[in-house]
User: Fold these one by one.
Assistant:
Number 1:
Amino acid sequence: MGTAAADAPATRRNLWRRRLWCAAGALVAALFAVLAVWLWSDHRRGVEAERTGARATATVTEVDVQNLGGGRSGGRVHFEFTDVEGTAHDGDVLLDRRISRYQVGQRIEVSYPPADPSAAVVIGDGTDPAPLPWVIPAIGAAVVALLAAYGAWCVRRAHRVLRDNPWVEVPSRLVQVGVGAGHALSLLELDGAPDDGKVLATAISWRTRPMADIARRTWVAGDDRHFYLAGLGGAPVVRAKRLRLTKHATGIEHVTTPLHSRVHPDQ
C-alpha cells in the first residue's frame, strides 16, 4: 500500500496496547520481587532471632486454630514471657499443622532480639515471622518477568517486520484441513501474499484470535520467513506462518460460514 505497515493507525494502536501490556507485566514482576525481598528479610530476621537472640521461657496464653481447607489446619500461638531485665512481653507466632502441639498454659522456649522482644520466635519449631514463604512471590516475579520479556521481544519483532514492509491486501478464504481423529484445523488460504500463488497460513501468536475474524479480505505484511496478518484497517495483528501439508492431512474443505474456534471436532 506504499507505506510501512507499522504506520497504519490501527496497527500503531495495536502495537502500542501490546507495549502497555508488557510494561504492566514488568511492573507486576517488580512488585512481586519487592514482596519477595521483604518476605526474605522477615524470614532472615526470624532465623537470626532463633540463632543469636536472647533465650527465655514463655507461657502459652492462647492457641488460635483455623481450618485452612483441604483437611489442613493452622493458626497463631500467643505467649508471654519475661526478658532478662524482668520486663513482661507478649508475642505470637504463625504455625501450620504444628499448632496441634501447643496448649494453653504450656511452657515453651523462645528466642528474641534484645532490641525488639516482640519479635520472639519459638525455638526448634521453625517459626517464621514472614506471613508467606518468600520463594512463592520470587517464582511469580520470575515467571511474570519472563512473560513480559517474551512479549516485549515479540512486539519488537513485529514492529521491525511491519516497519520494513507495507500491508498488501489480498483475497483470502477460511479453510479446514483434516488432521485425523475427527479434528480439523482452521486456516487462511491467501491468494497472492506473502508471495505469488496460494499460501495456507496459520496463526502462531501467543494470543491468537479466530482466523474467521480476518478472512475474506486480509492484509499481509512481511516475507516468507516472517509475516503478519491483519483485518481491514491493520488490526488485529496476528503473527503467521506458512503451513505445509503432510501425509497426515485428510483434505481441504472451504468454509463459507463464520467459525469461532481454530479447532473443531467432527460432529
Note: The radius of gyration is 31 Å.
Number 2:
Amino acid sequence: MMDQQHKPITVKPIGEVAAYLRNLIPPCIPEGYALKPRFSSVADEGDIRAGVVAFWEFLYLFCDKLTTDGHLYAKPRKNQADYPFIHNITNLLVDMGYYGVLSQSGDALVIDNLPLCAPPKPKIPGSAQAECQRFLSLCGFEFDGVEVKYPDNPLLLVGLKALSIADMELRADKRYWGDNNLLRCDYRLLKSEESNMLDVLRDFLHPLPSDVQNFAVKLHQRYTGMGLTCVNTRLGEVSFAYANLGKSKKIPAARAIYQKRIYDFSYSSNNGFCLFVRAKKTEGYMDVIKTFHPLLQERIMHGYGCDRKRGEPCQTGCKGILIPLDESVLVLADDIVAWLDEEMPKGK
C-alpha cells in the first residue's frame, strides 16, 4: 500500500498545459506605448511594437499546435510532473532572440552563438534542440544554417529579440531554467513608463467570469488602499502577492515581498486560479470566524502548513489556506473580506 504522504506524481495532459499557457497570454496588446532606451538599437519603435504583436499572435498558434500535436513532442521525464520540452523550447527561443542578430534585410536572425546549445555540455541536448526546431517549424519558423526566419511575418523576429532582451535583462526577478515567462508576451517590460498594477492584475484575471474578476479587483483595491504592497511574481507560478511592509522606506525585492504576504492570487497548472490566505491571527477573532459560512469556517480551522508533515498528501498547503477562484468564491465573498480585515495590521 502506498504511503499516504507520498502521492504518485501525475502529469497534466499536454492539452491542459497548453490551455494553462494560453490563459497567461495578455488578452490584447496596446498601441503607441513608449519604449525603454535599451531598445533604441534593436529597431524602429513602430517595428518593435508590431513585432511584439506578431509574437503575441504566434503564441496563440503555438498553444493550438501544442494542443493538437504536442503529444508527439512533449513527453514528461520519469518522476517529474512537468514537460522538459516546454522549458527547452522557451529557453531556445530566448537564446535565439537574445543572441541572434537581425539581418540587414530584417527578414532573418543570424545566429552563430547559442550558449544553451553549445558543447561540450549543452543545457539543451542536441536531440532536444532538433525536437524543438521541428515543433517551431510546425508553427511557422524556418531554420537554414545559421539563419532563422518567420516568413508569415518577419517582424516577429524583431518582437522576439526585444522580448528576449527584456526577459534576460529587465525583469524584477531572475530567470531560472523552468521559467516560461517569454510565453506570457510580457510587453510591459519594454515600456518606458511603469505599468499600473491593477491593469496587470486585470489581464491576469481575464479568463475568469466577470463577477469573480470584480471580486478579486475589489480585494486588490481594498487592501492596497489599506496599505498593503502588491507584487507580481513568477516564482514557479504566476502570483499577485499582498504584504505589509510596515514603515520600511526601501521596497524589498519581489521574492522578499512574496515571503511576507498575507494573501495572494495564484495561477498554476495544478491548482488553476485560486486565493491563498496565510492567516496568522485566527485565535484573536474566533467569535468572528463562527459567523462565517461553514465551508470557510472548516478551511480556516484546518489551518495551513506542510501537508506531508500533517500526514496528508501534498496539496501545496504550505502556501496558505486555498480558496478556489471561481464562481464558488462568490458565496464566501463577504466573509472573506471580513476575514482579511481581521488579518490586517492594527491601525490600517
Note: The chain is about 40% helix and 10% strand.
